[in-house]
Amino acid sequence: MAKKLRLFVAVELPEAAKSGLGKVIDALNTSDIPGIRTVRSEGIHLTLKFLGDVDADRVEAVTEALSKAIAGHAPFRLELGEVGAFPTLRRPRVLWVGINGDTEALASLQSDIEAALEAAGFAGDDRSYNPHLTLARLRPSIRNGPPPPSGKSAADVLKETPIEPGTFIPVERVSLMRTELHPDGAIHRRLVSIPL
Predict the structure, then answer these.
(1) CA 110, 115, 117: angle at the middle one, nearest 5?
(2) Is the pTM of this model over 0.85?
(3) Which of 113, 1, 9 has the alpha carbon at shortest distance from 57?
(4) 186: left (phi > 0), else alpha (psi -120 to 50), else beta?
(5) Can you tell me the distance from the alpha carbon of 28 to that of 153, in angstroms, rounded to the nearest whole number?
(6) If 176 and its partner were Cys, which of 54, 90, 152, 192 is the partner (CB 3.0–4.6 Å)?
(7) Which pLDDT band, with edges at 50, 70 and 90, does 143 fall under?
(8) DSSP assignment, residue 35?
(9) pLDDT tens-digit profile of 115-134?
């Protein structure tokens, strides 16, 4: 049986963007909100396509599909946007930062990647692409439970810790990433990086 790798396609962030997001994550970590599980700032990325568990011997086919998909796409620039939550900031399940900038170029790139990988045998996604950077997740019991000891909600912390305007994300490469799950959180490793 072939070894399985948990894979996704992403845009990796520059250090300045990770640093800015790290300040928000630090504020969430020190907010005394029980049940909040933040991500590591060094692992934050802009997901373009989640592939799930893939046979290791299919990495070359994925790389070829990605190379075809991004051919003809020129580099472009994105910017960190506003904070938000799924489903809402009042009852958050996932806390995130939105994406601004050349979102049309991003949508086009993501659509071409989706189509190329679907042609290569990967399941398509029926949901529309909603670019965001995940900061934290909250357990269901916390979302519906009493207020935290600090008296501050996740929404309060996000409002008090704004993202610095003008934090840019140059999109010059697309990476095929592998997730390794560990007891203290996921670690993401780049397998392949393909320039635009």
Answers:
(1) 95
(2) yes
(3) 1
(4) beta
(5) 10
(6) 192
(7) very low
(8) T
(9) 999 999 998 888 899 999 99
